[in-house]
What we know:
Elements: E1 30-38, E2 42-44, H1 58-61, E3 69-70, E4 77-80, E5 87-93, E6 100-110, H2 114-123, E7 128-134, E8 139-142, E9 150-151, E10 157-158, E11 168-177
Antiparallel strand pairs: 1-4, 1-7, 2-3, 5-6, 6-11, 7-8, 9-11, 10-11
Amino acid sequence: MAEADPKICIALDDINEAMDCSNMDNMGGIVPSVIYGYHEDVATWPDYPTKDAAALTLEEAGTLKGDLVMKTGCRAYKMEFLDEVSEFKITDQGETGGESYLYDLNIISAKMRKKIFGFENATKGRKMFFLVQDNNGTWYLMGDKRRGALRASGDGSTTGASSTARNQNTLHYTFTSPRKCVYEGDTEDILTASPTA
């Protein structure tokens, strides 16, 4: 058996059709709830995959390593919103030699209300993180140890033009990542603040 080329960071492999026996379900959309918090309240961020002795497998190359861990006394929060109208997407961007990925989260929350306005005021100009789960059960992290997710311009808040229209808030956040990865770390413990020393 030939030795692996030490210059190869990610080993290529056969890729089966997504709809094989173990992946029969494929559902669009996101779970109508995200986990979020201030970037500065995170103690430890998961790492982007890196090569050790052997080249990364394709699955390793597409998965963040480790957990998101909050600082002592801090916790993450959950936001619920309308189902079937909110969206998460990842878009390629950048010039050759400077490619990156734009993570884009667009949330629609029904009814203009003071708590949502307060959230918008709290996140204006602040670095944030978001954990988003799609309807196939896969999690995505917006934010890393260097950069956070930021508010972006969007449709804002509207009463709607008629009594049958939806009165709503549109919340739009983006994050530029050097890699496209899924998150397989903790999504439970971060919702409870660890006791202060």
